[in-house]
Write a structure and sequence with these properties.
The chain is an alpha/beta fold and 336 residues long. Helices cover 40% and strands 17% of the residues. The mean pLDDT is 95.
Length: 336
Amino acid sequence: MKIQDAGSTKISVTGAAGFIGANLIQKLVNQGFTVGSALDSFKPSYGGNWCNLRQKFLIPNNKIEVCNLVEEDAKSLAKKFDNSEIVIHLAAFPGIRQGEIKSYEYLVNNVLSTGLLLEACKINKNVKAILFASSSSVYGDLGQFDSTKEEDADGSQLKSNYAMTKWINEIQCKTFQSTLNIPVFGLRFFTVYGEWGRPDMAYSMFTNKILKDEAINIYGKDGGRRTMTHVDDATTQIIELIKYLKSSNYNSSLGFELFNIGSANSITALEMAELISKIVNKKAIYNFESRPVGDSIATNADLTKINKYIGKFKTRNISEGLESYAEWHHNNINLF
């Protein structure tokens, strides 16, 4: 679906220096969209200098405004959205394990910040649609039995504080949509990976430890199974949803919808470590440990719904994606 006036579509993005956000902005600009406000606190829960590095190497013209949503008020945040038609809310504290350690910080940065953003969108009458980040973690362990459809999650499957905050986000946004009557789409991301990704993710830690001859921790017999989604595939799905909204003229009848953002790739942690080991031609060393609290046994994305909206497209093969990532990681080993 080609949008002729992409440049006239102004889009604001929170979490702009995050992994998905920075890649999304790069792609939006390359496809001719106008990025209004690009906002980020530059204080990710996983620490490090990653936000600054993404801004430097990924963001065209390196323009991201430092903005901590929880320190803003709704009126000032509304002004930052300017005349944006679409707000894409990706800012959040991600990660299961850190969410158990920093439960209060996760509530503040994920739930309170989303409430403030929704209030800002209510004040700014120009906002015609919102897309927000949710997570496959809301499915809990349902993925071990079959691929999960959007309607499968009902709130009873939550296993972690992080999953709880994402479920609350969905409730917040659904309530907001029913009162303001603009389209609101939730994006349930399934393990997004790729270059410039989070250093606390398994694929990144595995690559780093194999390259440095350090032991990898595998939880349970195989570390659990995940649907792996290359960041290029995830951002493509987001942009195709943007095009769908635009072509529909932001019809209020689109309402509130949730979409799995995933791929056809499913792999266990142990299989992934072995694949990376083969790619870099170095033997992996393993420590097998019990599964942490909150960790899902498996995630498995059903993409039927999003394919109906944007059309089916071929996602990147996991071997190809990890090979590209491992080469990048090896060339940037000094960052880890």
